[in-house]
Design a protein that fits this description.
400 residues, mainly alpha, 68% helix, 17 helices
Length: 400
């Protein structure tokens, strides 16, 4: 490509970024969008780095490098970012509901609008994988392989179910102190691990555990977390509690599930996962001002706006992109970092080289299915032009 062509592409990207910035309402807190984008991309990269599909005797099975290299557990500390997503989700939902009430919008209309934006992308995933699984079984594919693929593809849906439940309960949760769900998690873990009780009460933590960052988001909306002191307290107390639970209470060091381990910090969430999430939320709150400054750069903001406009599409289809790449690669044999056991640093190096390929596959999925998230004829909810009727509610809805 000639220098003139490269310069033309660069100028086109710069103009597009400037247009995205100009179309964004001036009162919007771009740090909220940056945190949401970071949370989504953290989950995607985490799954791509610790999820392996190993080809073994004609079948595919899941494996994790954390099984063979437990000292890589800090990777899970970087990329298990669900607490930040629930923090932002609680903040956005409580602001949105308050804005809807101020404008006289009834609860059922508000809830229908929010759940519809979640439901459309889910229907697309379910539809494609219903057809794909049926076709694989009819073609004679091994049932264990099909089960592995479907489970991996649909695993992100558990998060959306919990998120939808919390969204529906937003009017009841808007003033709930985060210490209440934290106390529930503590008592459930005392029953399970301290008193040797049954495992089933742990599933209470699926809601209670993620309710902690969600209600922190509501506290953010109420203005209770604006001072840096709140962020430092959450970061310090959450990190200290997590270290203590891992070092002296026997909780796993990994913040994601590891095949073969007796206890997972994530399935269902444990007290260690929740305290770790508190530390993450504290760090997120401390990063708000630096992120606001960074989002003033047109190119950076345009990239964040693009991720936010397709957040559910990226989240729901990233596992499909991983599996599509893995299945296609089988045509060339067992490829390092793609089909081989994740049992050494060689696998880690090879997997890093596959990340751009996964990104291309995800871009294909994004191009094919992003319309389900945006809705036909809709503009982006992140970047949109002002209308005269927006001015009265812009201050209240700036994060929505």
């Amino acid at each position: 490509m000639t220098d003139l062509g490269v310069r033309g592409i660069r100028d086109g990207l710069r103009r597009g970024a400037q247009q995205a910035g100009a179309a964004t309402p001036p009162g919007r807190d771009r740090a909220v969008d940056a945190l949401r984008a970071a949370a989504v991309l953290g989950v995607v990269l985490g799954h791509w780095l610790v999820t392996a599909l190993v080809a073994d005797s004609g079948t595919l099975r899941t494996a994790s490098p954390l099984q063979h290299m437990p000292w890589l557990a800090p990777i899970s500390w970087l990329f298990q970012t669900l607490a930040v997503f629930f923090l932002v989700g609680g903040h956005v939902a409580t602001r949105s509901h308050a804005s809807a009430r101020a404008r006289g919008v009834p609860y059922h209309s508000w809830l229908t609008g929010r759940l519809t934006r979640l439901g459309r992308p889910v229907l697309a995933v379910l539809g494609l994988w219903t057809v794909a699984a049926s076709a694989l079984l009819l073609s004679g594919a091994e049932s264990g392989t099909v089960r592995t693929l479907v489970k991996l593809a649909l695993s992100p849906l558990w998060f959306l179910v919990v998120f939808a439940v919390l969204t529906a309960a937003t009017p009841l949760l808007a003033r709930l102190n985060p210490l209440w769900p934290l106390a529930v998690v503590l008592h459930v873990d005392l029953l399970r691990f301290g008193l040797g009780g049954p495992a089933w009460p742990g599933w209470v933590n699926v809601v209670a555990g993620w309710l902690v960052p969600y209600t922190l988001g509501a506290a953010w909306t109420r203005g209770e977390l604006e001072r840096p002191r709140a962020g430092w307290i959450l970061l310090g107390a959450g990190a200290a509690a997590t270290v203590g639970l891992v070092a002296w209470a026997g909780y796993p060091a990994s913040m994601v599930g590891v095949p073969g381990e007796g206890v997972s910090n994530l399935d269902p969430p444990t007290l260690a996962a929740v305290t770790f999430g508190l530390a993450q939320c504290g760090l997120a709150l401390l990063l708000r001002e630096p992120l606001r400054r960074a989002m003033r750069r047109p190119v950076t903001w345009a990239a964040v706006a693009l991720v936010n406009a397709s957040a559910m599409t990226v989240f729901l289809w990233h596992q499909t992109a991983l599996m599509a790449t893995t299945a296609t690669g089988l045509l060339a044999g067992r490829l390092p970092g793609l089909h081989t056991p994740p049992d050494g640093l060689g696998w880690v190096g090879a997997r890093l080289l596959w990340l751009p390929v996964f990104t291309v596959a995800l871009a294909v999925c994004w191009g094919a299915f992003r319309s389900f998230e945006r809705g036909r004829g809709r503009r982006s909810r992140v970047v949109r032009a002002h209308h005269p009727s927006d001015r009265g509610t812009a201050a209240k809805a700036r994060h929505v």
